[in-house]
Amino acid sequence: NMKTVLILLVLALATIFALVCVLLTRGRAPSPCQHQPPEQEDTDGGQSLVFADLTPEEMVQVVRYLQGNLGVQLVDASRAKPSDNCIASVDVQVPAKAEVLRFLDGGGARPPREALAVLYFGNQPDPNVTEYVVGPLPTPAYHRDITVQKYGGKVPYHRRPVTGNEYVDINALIQQELRKAPRFLDACCKSDGTDLAILTTAPRGFKSGDRVTWFVLFHSVPGTGYYLSPVGLEVLVEHGDLHVSCWRLHQVFYNGRYFASMGDLEDAFVANLLEVVRIKKPQAKAVLGSMRPRHPPGSPGPLQYEPQGPRYSIRENRVTFQGWSITFGMNPNSGPRLFDIRYRGERIVYELSLQEALALYSSNCPGGMSTRYLDGSFGIGRFAYELVRGLDCPYMATYVDRHYLAESETPKTNQNSLCIFEHDAALPLRRHFSDSQSLYYGGLRKNTLVIRAISTLINYDYIWDFMFHSSGAVEVQVHATGYISSSFLHGRGTNYGNRVGPHTLGTMHLHHIHYKVDLDVDGQLNSLETQDMGYELVKDPWSMQNTIERPYLRRERLEREDEAAFPLNAPMPRYISFASPKSNKWGHPRSYRIQITSFAGEHLPTSSPMERSISWGRYQLAVTRRKEEEPTSTSIYNQNDPWTPTIVFADFINNETITNEDLVAWISVGFLHVPHAEDVPNTVTVGNGIGFFLRPYNYFDEDPSVDSPDSVYFSSEQDAGACGANPLACLPPAVACAPHLPPFHYGGFLNL
């Protein structure tokens, strides 16, 4: 049967073809460009969501619940007047640590999900700020006023942060007052006032209850930073009354002189009793501080990419990478926060969070000399905008959206405002070339996982980095960039900074940053141990008539909080560790060492009436017992009432025992910045980075990076160019794995 023969022939040919394919592909290595999923599987099961930031849907539900259950009229904060009631912000209320650990480690129930809502009650007989816990989410059914429990009393209304709408009303008042001095403005600035930028200072006055703010005026040129173009005019506005119509301009400063009003300034000018510095309005192409490129683009620089795809894994709010597991989030006020940091399955840190950023200025102008910005009050997390792919972070980094609700009833999204990437530092983590006995080379590249956000706080940009090394170390860094702030150069201005432009004084200032580190080293109960070196004079055992200065190790266990509070400029032991009661293989306490890199000086004399509001700045390191009632070192309310601060960090230190307790390290880092010519147009990150390390110290029995799959070793007896002997020899084919880059897109201007 011819039909049967043809069918058998086709089947035979198909079988032969299949066998040939098998023979040709047998033993062939997978393509060097084939995506390799991370080896570490995520077995979290959604537990990390106990720390998760609120979703936009949850924020909306909280707002709806408050609108329907407080029994008062709430005005949208974006248009609220001081005399209104409004929802200022909504954020997640992280459950108590004991509840969370019962859930994570003890198989207990998941804690109820709750929100923290901050409300301004201006339309009440006793205006105040009230904080509520609202829950359970996603369908709220209750709210609790926790203000008194949290702060020991009601929060006075004058302590509330200034809202965007309040600034709008202040600007309108200033414009109204500027119109009273038209001839002066034309002479000094070639302006009618409407094209001048207005910059706030803080705090606002000299005593509790004050809400009186100096505002500094600058020439504003579209597309450039106005911060380097002061015109010499500053105004003091009193805006504490609930009724905007009662606000008034209190004082005026120009070129070293003070006036009661803009009218008095105009009269002095007309009477020729005023020395006026005539400043032409700068042009966009020649303005001081322009960041526009001066040359056409050159050839592209090096590009970082992963030949076989990312080696980290992100699920919800958790990232895993080569033994690391980190839960990440963003507080709209205080900024980045990490929880439940584990290495090789063991929790190292329960909480690592930014607390505050202080910028304290000097000048011989009132605005500059009175400025002590506490950036948490403005919103470090809220103003972490979209990152620029390929510059702020590597082009192929993973970008994550962050959501917040502040000064509005509608949630906002900062798209792509947090990035996560693996970074090749182009530096060996460790290496050795052996040229004696046996000949070999061994080493390991320094590859780290980086979690980054960048906050723009008026003129400054802070780059927040959290890095995780294969040695088990955590590195925390902050770099400062952006524009310097400046004053109008007059009199002896250079006593307070350097001249950086025709009429511009770059004003000296301090940066102090504060972090909370809740270390749990091999369990919650830790002690604080210090080690340093001393010298002892001993007789040489082999030559008793001679002596030698022998270094020895001084070990000490600190017993109480007062011993563990290290003042800023005092000597501190070079090794400070959180120690577990358990030992490693060699009999030493399993520990993590805190190593600080900082150039901070005195934050403020303790005699200052506002020093207690930033008393965390007294210490380079302070270790206290962990308490739920001491969750943060500062408050957003400290900025506008530093004279009666809502939270005083120094009160946390009360000489309690710190042996075998749940401890928290509070770390301050900072530097002095004296602006100079090279800070124009922008301050560079080079030399302006500070931070700290958390390093394993006898925590392991050996360096855990020995288990890294990236290790390299070859001897003189091997062919170092063979891929099987040396992973570096496998790299040339990976050149063909250049990724398909997604199109560049930036939407950071859309949601301001």
Automatic annotation (TrEMBL):
Residues 304-705 form the Copper amine oxidase catalytic domain. One of its GO terms (cellular component) is plasma membrane. Its EC number is 1.4.3.-. Residues 72-142 form the Copper amine oxidase N2-terminal domain. One of its GO terms (biological process) is amine metabolic process. GO terms for molecular function: copper ion binding; primary methylamine oxidase activity; quinone binding. Residues 1-18 form the signal peptide. Residues 289-309 are annotated as: Disordered. It is an enzyme of class 1 (oxidoreductase). Residues 160-257 form the Copper amine oxidase N3-terminal domain. This is Amine oxidase. It comes from Aptenodytes forsteri. The lineage of its organism: Eukaryota, Metazoa, Chordata, Craniata, Vertebrata.
